[in-house]
UniProtKB/TrEMBL annotation:
GO CC field: plasma membrane
UniProt keyword terms in alphabetical order: Cell membrane, Membrane, Transmembrane, Transmembrane helix
TM region positions: 25-52, 59-82, 157-176, 182-200
Organism: Streptomyces malaysiensis subsp. samsunensis
Protein name per Swiss-Prot or TrEMBL: VTT domain-containing protein
Subcellular location, principal: membrane
Length: 221
């Protein structure tokens, strides 16, 4: 009993968790938007799981939604601004190169075509499609969209994105009694959502190549 009491006292209070968690959520999502290595969707989903288990879930979820959406919008606008600096400079910039490196040529061509046809609506939807944000952002940069026009689409896109991944967290948190179980489920689900399309495209590209290689081998034999 003494050990359990010590453990309960060692757990940070809810107010302390919020004071640390919300700024951390904001910084992680902004960083993940600038450098696409942090699974920002999993961060928002995990924060939503934790919010469900707090004393005032509706208020906590509302704050998570607001912080996540604001961070996503801020990160996108900052990255676009840095990319525009690269477009305007003669030698480009490392940020523009980084954006270009994360956009496959075929995805970029599709994004440019859809951007010409549908405009800002494509930018809003790109946030909800795994690996769709960067090609569309690069297409906007190549089309020389002003920052204000990009921001008009980035705002609704960030709201829709935050709502989607928060719903995933709510689902994971409601299925499991312990917060860590819900966080684990939310992380697995969001990582699967973000990586499955890329793996599928890679498999589709590899299959015709393998078939041609096998045909050449049989012909040579």
């Amino acid at each position: 009993m003494g050990d359990l009491a010590d453990l309960a006292r060692s757990v940070p209070s809810e107010s302390t968790q919020q004071a640390v968690g919300y700024p951390s959520l904001f910084l992680l999502v902004v960083f993940g938007s600038l450098v696409p290595v942090v699974p920002t969707g999993a961060v928002v989903s995990s924060a939503a799981v934790v919010a469900i288990h707090q004393t005032a879930p509706p208020l906590s979820l509302l704050v998570v939604f607001g912080v996540g959406a604001l961070a996503a919008f801020s990160g996108d606008v900052m990255l676009y601004w840095l990319g525009r600096r690269g477009v305007r400079s003669k030698n480009g910039s490392r940020w523009l190169e980084r954006i270009h490196d994360h956009a496959a040529p075929e995805r970029l061509n599709q994004a440019r075509e859809r951007l010409e046809e549908h405009g800002v609506a494509v930018l809003v939807l790109s946030r909800l499609i795994p690996a769709g944000r960067i090609p569309v952002m690069l297409a906007c940069l190549l089309a020389r969209w002003p920052l204000r026009r990009f921001a008009r689409g980035a705002g609704p896109a960030a709201l829709a994105w935050a709502a989607t991944y928060q719903l995933i967290g709510i689902l994971g948190g409601s299925l499991f009694p312990e917060p860590w179980e819900g966080v684990a489920a939310a992380v697995v689900l969001t990582v699967a959502i973000s990586t499955t399309p890329a793996l599928w495209r890679r498999l589709r590209r590899r299959t015709p190549h393998d078939a041609r290689s096998e045909a050449r081998s049989e012909a040579a034999g």
